[in-house]
């Protein structure tokens, strides 16, 4: 946040960064600063919104025949538009052996930067994406990454015959 300080009494104009911890969607305050015999009035407005972009450096790694780990870094600070409070991971199987093609969502707190998706189907491709939340709502999903779970030797014995 940037504060613009303008005084009608002094021939000056100041701009300097200030950080606030806010709990409301819109913050407005009116401050009086005394400088010798002059008063400078400061109005501060800050509007929160949803994140403008998805988390950075989103990657996925197959760790077993039924698990994929999803990793990401924070949303760029300029695109956060408030305090990031949570992340949401969307994963969709592209084909399954049991016919279940239902999208699934996993939520995690903002303190996490990875999630392991468990109980997936063996040797199946998944489209996976992640997005961030502020108190106002969800930002955009990242582009999908397609990842396949690893092959289990039991499955190969059935399919390879």
Short précis:
The protein has 161 residues and is mainly β. The chain contains two helices and eleven strands; from the N terminus they run E-E-E-E-E-E-H-E-E-E-E-E-H.
Per DSSP, the total helix count is 2
* Largest β-sheet summary: 4 strands, antiparallel
Largest sheet strand order: 8-7-10-11
Helix-strand sequence: EEEEEEHEEEEEH
Number of domains: 2
Number of strands: 11
Q: Name the average pLDDT.
A: 77
CATH class of the largest domain: Mainly Beta
- The name of the CATH superfamily of the largest domain reads Immunoglobulins
Distance between the ends: 64 Å
Structural class: mainly beta
CATH fold-level assignment of the largest domain: Immunoglobulin-like
Q: Report the C-alpha radius of gyration, rounded.
A: 24 Å
**Proportion of residues in extended strands:** over 45%
Instruction: Give the overall shape.
Output: elongated
